[in-house]
Amino acid sequence: MNFLSSFSLPVTDPTWIFLIVLVIILFAPILLGKLRIPHIIGMILAGVAIGEFGFNILERDSSFELFGKVGLFYIMFLAGLEMDLEDFRKNKVKGLVFGIFTFAIPMILGIWTSVSILDFPVVSSVLLASMYASHTLVAYPIVSRYGLARQRSVNITIGGTVITVTLALVILAVISGMYQGTSDGFYWLMLCLKVVLLCLVIIFVFPLVGKWFLRKYDDPVMQFVFILAMVFLGGGLMSLAGMEGILGAFLVGIVLNPLVPRVSPLMNRLEFVGNALFIPYFLIGVGMIIDVRTLFAGGSALKVAVVMTVVATLSKWLAAFFTQKIFRMSRSERGMMFGLSNAQAAATLAAVLVGHEIIMENGERLLNDDVLNGTVVMILFTCVISSLATDFFGRKLAVEQPADTEPAGGTKERILIPVANPDNIENLVNLALVIRNPRGGGDFVALNVISDASSSSTSAEIGRRGIEKAAKIATAADVNVSMVSRYDMNIASGIVHTIKEYSATEVVIGLHQKSGFLDSFFGNLTNNLLRRTYLEVLVARFVMPVNTVSNMVVIVPPRAEYEAGFKKWITHICRMSAQFGCKVLFISEKDTSEHLHVACRHCGTENVSKFESRERLSLQDEMSRTMDPENVLVVVSARGGSVSYDPALEKIPQCLVRNATISNFIILYPEQVDLEDMVSFSDPMGTA
Predict the structure, then answer these.
(1) Which runs of consecutive H residues, i.e. helices, occur in 505-589?
(2) Most buried in the list 133, 182, 468, 609, measured by CB within 10 Å?
């Protein structure tokens, strides 16, 4: 009985508050999933139910304000981080047009309806219309779940979001300054200077600091905390400049986009923490401020709520409609743009709270209580409509227009990663992650081979720790890993046997460490492996983290287009370019360059690819050029006897040794037709 007597509503004990929130985050998706209702709506409705306007189980204390702020920043940050920058550049005109529409149409309709229907003053009507113009990407987690973050319609909507939210916040700052007596010329000049200066700092300084930190420190916890610190530093600086911090968080996401590959352990951690805790906290907090009872209170409050909801929804649909018609987009893309841009939350709340606190000369509030109640009702309905529309059209887009433009392979990928040197395991796994097809469901095989001639408990233990480290890195990116440790007569035989047993499709191996003066550049292991397998083999050396790559230079030998694995390695290069966010320079002879053009266009990376053709390609001349330490050289080689083989390829090691500026390189051996069972007079043992 003492326990029951001490229990009262609303709950104030932090332990029980956090437990209730976790239960909601856990069970709301399960229950609503059976009803085919988007999870986001469940979070908002749960917030309505437990808030002071529902069953009053919890009050919206400082924890919801803190985690809600973090969740809002997280949504904007992930929107910038997951955006396809190259596609964004291609569609920047469309994004600009949509941004103008999604700002101008709500402003025009909002001012007209507020003056003619609601009888509001002009200043109040302008501020209310700016609330319609701004929107929050509440439904963005749905886009991420369907893997549509790089769709054209999504990138256009995100670009439009930046424009309309910025203009809406400028209007809020102007009106707020008018009633604070600070709206003189000097105030606006300083505001513009501060915003421009801080944007330049975020754009140019943050990437340099990010590259330095990610190269110097590889601890996953430190990298995660560093990225979060950069997000909130950007948001805090933008708040100091007089603008909303969400713009700073979004801008940080864009500038850090090239440093965090979409398929990487770091990206997985960032998405996991945000989607598991911070974003649900924000959505629940939004629901807690919604008073559904205002719908049934009657009078002017219901009228204001209906007008606000209808105008906000209709204006966003018209913006998407006109954009679709001008650029001849599909109906599903129009629906996606409408769904993402319809939700009102962050900037809308900021505007209504500021307007509600402003007292005009006649003693009335700039935005009265009816607008405040109407705003929370509008937030509820627009978030529900946004979630339902985004989920519906997201499903259609996932079927009609796959997120990846590259062709899906017919066989399931399985990348073999032999581990030997502990220093290059992380880079090899990260390289395998970026060439892996994210839609193919392929997995990795981490292999440690112990030679019978030099078997010992020490080498076995070192190898075991190596494959465990590789598995840990890959599983952090949600990739299945098979850990294989085996004894064999030599390492090359162990790799070849594992290729057959696990049906591997590619091999990613580190550069051999020379053990003596007479040892070759590649070593016997690589040479024997190339002779005994027809798969694509990537021999890599990186002296810096692969996610800090700036550009790639690819040297392609003549007749490479006739190799069986030509399209496969082109696809891998294109995936690397997309994941790194870098440009690719292909150097080849004229005939090969034309085929490279076609292949890159098929993969959708022609805009980030440059092509230099030579009348006659000289490998030594091309590899003698000075390389930037942040660039990666990819040399497409060939096995002896293949159609693109040239004796000059044998001089690759000497060229790499002579050019000290080449610190990061990949020697790529394309896949060939399976010649394993073929025997020729030139190679009677069938090993070449």
Answers:
(1) 523-532, 566-580
(2) 133
Per-residue DSSP letter, 277: I
Q: Which CATH number fits domain 542-674+683-688: 3.40.50, 3.30.2420, 1.10.3470, 1.10.10?
A: 3.40.50
Fold of 62-277+309-400: Na+/H+ antiporter like fold (1.20.1530)
Query: 277-315 pLDDT, tens per residue?
Result: 888 888 888 778 777 776 666 667 778 888 888 998 999
The token pair that represents 278 in the structure block: 């911070």
Query: Under a CB-based contact definition with an 8 Å cutoff, are residues 46 and 21 in contact?
Result: no
If DSSP codes are grouped into helix, strand and coil, which group holds residue 417? strand
- For residue 365, count CB atoms less than 10 angstroms from its CB and return exposed for 0-12, middle for 13-18, buried for 19 or more: middle
**Every domain of the chain and the residues it spans:** 62-277+309-400, 408-535, 542-674+683-688
**Tokens 């490279």, located at residue:** 596
- Mark out the alpha helices in 487-603 (DSSP H runs): 491-502, 523-532, 566-580, 590-603
Question: Alpha-carbon distance 276 to 282, whole Å?
Answer: 11
The SS3 assignment for 242 reads coil
449: left (phi over 0), alpha (psi -120 to 50) or beta: beta
Fold observed for domain 408-535: Rossmann fold (3.40.50)
- pTM comes to 0.70
- Condensed to tens digits (0 to 9), the pLDDT of residues 389-447 reads 888 888 888 776 544 444 444 567 889 998 877 778 888 888 888 888 876 667 899 98
Distance CA 299, CA 159 (A): 39
Q: What does the alpha-carbon distance between residue 219 and residue 425 come to, in Å, rounded to a whole number?
A: 14
- Residue identified by tokens 């069972």 is 677
Nearest to 342 by CA among 304, 374, 310: 310
Say how far residue 44 (Cα) sits from the centre of its chain. Answer: 25
